[in-house]
Amino acid sequence: MPHFLVFVLSCFASSVLADDYFHSLYLDFNKTYHLSWKFNKSHIEFHAEVKTLGYVALGLSMDGGLKNADIFIAGVSNGQSYSSNYYGNADKKLSLQATSEWHLMYFNESDTKTTLTFCRGLSGSNMKVNITQNTMRVLWGYNKTDTVSDSFEPDGVKSQYLLQDPFPDPVMSNDTFTIEFRMNKTLIPNTKTTYWCKSFASPPLDEQVHAVVISPYIQEENEAFVHHILLYGCYKNTSEGIHIGYQTRCYSQNMPNDWNNCRTVLNAWAIGGSSFTLPKHTGISIGGEEDPLYYLLEIHYDNPLETEGFLDSSGLKLTVTKTKRQYEAGVLEVGCNVRPPYELIPPYAKEFKYYGHCEACESMIKPEKISNGIGTEFR
Questions:
Q1: Torsions phi, psi of 260, nearest 5?
Q2: Are the beta carbons of 252 and 197 closer than 8 angstroms?
Q3: pLDDT digits (tens, 9 = 90+) for 13-64
Q4: Exposure pattern of 253-262 as b/e (b: 16+ CB <10 Å)?
Q5: What does the sequence similarity comment in the record state about its family (predicted)?
Q6: What distance in Å separates the CA atoms of residue 229 and residue 270, rounded to the nearest whole number?
Q7: Please, are residues 82 and 74 in contact by the beta-carbon 8 Å criterion?
């Protein structure tokens, strides 16, 4: 039987409906722990559905570790709910918070799963971890029993941007179709870190199109391996296309020299990100006279346990339209090229400035031709 808990708190009037939440995802490969959430200016509400009859844990950490983490553990025992707020102490064990900053709003236990709705403030003077506009480290776990030990270890950690405003469903014209840049059953190397690249011919198009939505495609069960994805545009092809479809480690001796001309980032996705929808009057040009001759996909695989035998077909999916939009979007990269010789910031420096020179920028960006930013990403 479902149970609602009533208390005075300016969180949300919970409907306990998954589609009422801004975002939702599975935290584990086996789809055991499903988490949804929504937020307002002061509070965040979580809704967890977990295939267990024991306790359910959710926490926040600055670095992914248990020390100084803020942990909420709750569950249902003999038809009654229980919940407590813990923090990770200096010994990386659980200590009970004197006053709970988390509040259980709803609980239910069926024959196979536990469902909980709970909330907390985004920030506060007594909170171990404030929820900010940065990517947060979300700790999660569950147990077969309701017994909570101070030696609790989370089952996993996920990097997640929690305060992403919900995107309205884009209005699509009836002439849209998709273009995919994906690996094809690539064997994930059994090394801790790998940058893997694959080249693609420019899509065979009869006319120029505009990309309006760019979405990540992360192969099921490989979510833990795919750290980030980059799609480059390549404007020189001195080898006359003999390396199209070739794949190898990026920046290695086996990498074709032509790929050094692939420096223009067209899109980037990283852990915690989602689809990128361009404004309704803006698109990214593909197939035009000044567009890339071919494309290069780079995936950073994270494999800390050096696991063997996983094949991957992750990549990016572009939704494009034949209806030309009013404006075309481009990418401006600002910063330091982090290739040898590397730039090093001196220890204890109070500030450190980078200086760059761009003679072409003056003609590209003029005050009378205003450029509007529609998205930013830091690396």
A1: -70, -15
A2: no
A3: 544 444 588 888 888 877 899 999 999 999 999 999 999 999 999 999 998 9
A4: eebbebbebb
A5: Belongs to the copper type II ascorbate-dependent monooxygenase family.
A6: 6
A7: yes
Per domain, the residue ranges of the chain are 23-161, 176-364
Please state, in angstroms and rounded to a whole number, the distance separating the CA atoms of residues 298 and 268.
10
Question: Please, what sign has the CA dihedral across residues 280, 286, 292, 298?
Answer: positive
Pairwise CA distance, residues 41 & 297, whole Å: 38
Query: Any idea which residue has 């553990």 for tokens?
Result: 73
Report the top-level CATH class of 176-364: mainly beta
Mean pLDDT of 310-326: 95
Question: Rounded CA gap, 163 and 356, in Å?
Answer: 33
Question: In CATH, what is the architecture of 23-161?
Answer: Sandwich (2.60)
pLDDT at 29: 74
Which pLDDT does position 20 carry in this prediction? Answer: 82
Nearest in space to 57 (alpha carbons), one of 116, 142, 137: 142
327-328 and 282-286 as β-strands: parallel, antiparallel, unpaired?
parallel
Nearest to 70 by CA among 8, 3, 162, 164: 162
Decide the pairing of beta strands 186-187 and 176-182.
unpaired
From CA 375, how far away is CA 365, in angstroms rounded?
A: 17
